[in-house]
Amino acid sequence: MHKTSALGRVLELLVVAALAATADDAEAESARCAEVAFIQSARSLFHNLELAEQKARFQSFMTMLSTASTSSLKELKWQVLRTFPAVEVQANPACSNIGGRFPTLVSRNQSLLDAYATYACGDAADYFVTDPARSLSAELAPLEGGCINLHNRWSTIRATFASNESHGEYLHRDCPESCLQEEFWHQLPTQVVDHDLLVLPSIPGPPGMGYQHSLIDFLPQAWTVLDLLWNSSTKLVVHSSLPSHLLASLGFPTERILEVPPLTDEQPAMLLCAKKGRTMHLWRAGGGSRALPSHPYQDSRVDGDLWHRLIDIQVGPEISDAIAQYNGFVEEPFAPRLVVFLQRCTDRRTLENEQAALEAISRALVKSNRPEELLSMCAGREDFLEQVQKVRRARLIVGAHGGAMANMVLARPDTGVIELVGDAAAQKGLEGLWPPYKSNFYGGLGAAFPFYRVVLYEADPHGKLWIRLDDLQTAVTEFLDRL
Ligand SMILES: *[C@@H]1O[C@H](CO)[C@@H](O)[C@H](O)[C@H]1NC(C)=O
Ligand SMILES: *[C@@H]1O[C@H](CO)[C@@H](O)[C@H](O)[C@H]1NC(C)=O
Ligand SMILES: *[C@@H]1O[C@H](CO)[C@@H](O)[C@H](O)[C@H]1NC(C)=O
């Protein structure tokens, strides 16, 4: 990379960090600290970097990538850190994917249930290759002086490959010859880091969706290695100050974190290398003796093989407890649990009858004579620790699909979830990836919850969105009746 362009990148990072700062004083203060850390880590990256070394590393990576299929490359040696048992899945009689890869829909309207089953076992039958009914493991492999390409989820690059001159492996989707011809491979900015590193290939979410993807694609995976890293000299690689912020809430030392430039729309991919003599530890979700299935390169089912997410709900309660302990949460053991309603609280995709939904939940609570208290919250307006405190008291979480629902990762293991999801018509015209009925259950992540249901919201002829209130009340009652 040219010196001036490197400086340009640092400035760009500052703009991003400045934009992230908010009006709130405490937040502004922590944003400033994050900003300083950010600048420092950006500087340390650009320190001592020789153009010649970057070029050489990039060339060597490309050579290994192009020989990967014919291969004299040796495989990496994976070590199991922790295993996760298969989740017991209650398959739906109408469609076996429901309950496993897709959540159960609650509706009194049989034609809606039929349409959903037709989707989950018809059109979308092979969307996900993930399967919560498989046992998984978190695994690590060392790679001496190697490189890995990282890309955000919306980048055209869909393959992740890690190698040095003798060893190498795909960590996400293989790259056939046609993929090697793609232009993006010729313009990967290269960062060579003079540290031992640990890379979670799952980290880069889509730009601008930092919070939910840090909770779903980063924190649970990172949790499996934190003990190992805590007192070591190896740094955990992150792409923005947000994951660092989450790790700080666990007391994880900032010296163990290396922030590399975020993957943005303008800069969707990079090559990250460990200097010769340094080790890059790689993380993956493994499937024991049988390899986990993956989708082929450039498959349009972008999120269909996100195996790493399937451990989230199993480690979530441990992370939540660790946050509570580190931050000295005072939790009254006999305080009533909550039914937490996560409101949209933005002008985007407003649900017209959100208030009436709150009343429907309240009616269901009163009718079933339960002690739980109803709490409505605007997650986006609260500090992370405040959100964790409330989610930890939740007995049931209700909310529309969106960033705030990612908080479910930090709920207690006995918590129920009711997610409001849109049918195809309600999601028409939205930017990004919006398969019908899109939910956080997504491929089986939610299957580890004892109760996870979705309820539809629908668009009227004017495009306004309405929650199906009677279905919501049915779902809430169904949950309460089980208690
Ligand atoms: C079921 O829902 C659809 C879509 O909202 C509606 O058109 C239809 O009339 C409903 N059927 C019944 C039996 O209520
Ligand atoms: C590549 O990494 C492997 C695994 O750590 C190591 O055994 C090997 O010596 C490395 N090869 C080179 C050329 O550095
Ligand atoms: C790290 O070292 C400190 C001090 O020796 C020790 O108290 C702590 O338990 C260690 N943490 C981990 C996770 O090993």
From TrEMBL:
Coiled coil: none annotated. One of its GO terms (molecular function) is glycosyltransferase activity. It comes from the Eukaryota. The keyword Transport does not apply. Residues 1-28 form the signal peptide. The keyword Hydrolase does not apply. Residues 211-418 form the Glycosyltransferase 61 catalytic domain. Keywords: Signal. InterPro entries: Glyco_transf_61_cat. This is Glycosyltransferase 61 catalytic domain-containing protein. It comes from Symbiodinium natans. The lineage of its organism: Eukaryota, Sar, Alveolata, Dinophyceae, Suessiales.
